[in-house]
Design goal:
The chain is globular. Strands 1-4-2-3 form a 4-stranded mixed sheet. The protein has 7 helices and 4 strands. Helix 5 packs across helix 7 and helix 6 crosses helix 7. 49% of the residues lie in helices and 16% in strands. The protein is of the alpha/beta class.
Length: 172
């Protein structure tokens, strides 16, 4: 995970998009797009901790993540400081992604959310983590693994990016 953000930073990326598939109880469904943010609820913090716990499986996670401890709430506050400069742009893009998932792909949106996901850590540009659906839901799994479903989701993300870029270029 630590190499994704540093790779984007190294190549001076204008935006960081990390695409994932979610898992939960079989009844869970829908898309959600996350930006790095404050953990205003215990639920968001718990989701962040669970998602980031996978770094503990890496052999040299202490060195790779500068002492990051996914169980320590203070590390999530530090993440917040890194992302604050790009929060508005990240939210703006995330809203476009979720809107296109609804209007273009016909998916159910769980909304734009903020959490302290490690994959967004240390990006020096607007950044989002997209959960394109739940593989643990049989109906969503069928959609996500179909050629049509994958194409509609990819088109939705592209449309969001094209719209976001046009707005940024117009402002800049």
């Amino acid at each position: 995970l630590h190499q994704r953000a540093s790779g984007a930073n190294k190549h001076n990326a204008d935006i960081f998009i990390s695409i994932h598939l979610n898992s939960a109880k079989p009844a869970a469904f829908g898309t959600e797009t996350y930006t790095q943010g404050l953990h205003v609820t215990g639920a968001n913090l718990e989701v962040s901790k669970r998602e980031n716990a996978s770094v503990l499986l890496e052999s040299d996670y202490v060195a790779n993540y500068d002492g990051f401890d996914p169980k320590d709430p203070t590390t999530h506050i530090i993440f917040e400081l890194f992302q604050s400069a790009y929060r508005n742009q990240s939210i703006r893009f995330a809203e476009k992604v979720e809107n296109n998932f609804k209007t273009h792909a016909g998916r159910s949106s769980r909304g734009v959310k903020q959490a302290g996901f490690l994959v967004l850590y240390r990006t020096t540009m607007p950044a989002v983590l997209i959960e394109a659906g739940f593989l643990t839901n049989p109906n969503e799994e069928n959609y996500l693994t179909s050629t049509t479903g994958r194409a509609k989701l990819a088109e939705s993300i592209y449309k969001a990016f094209a719209s976001y870029k046009a707005e940024i270029d117009k402002e800049g």
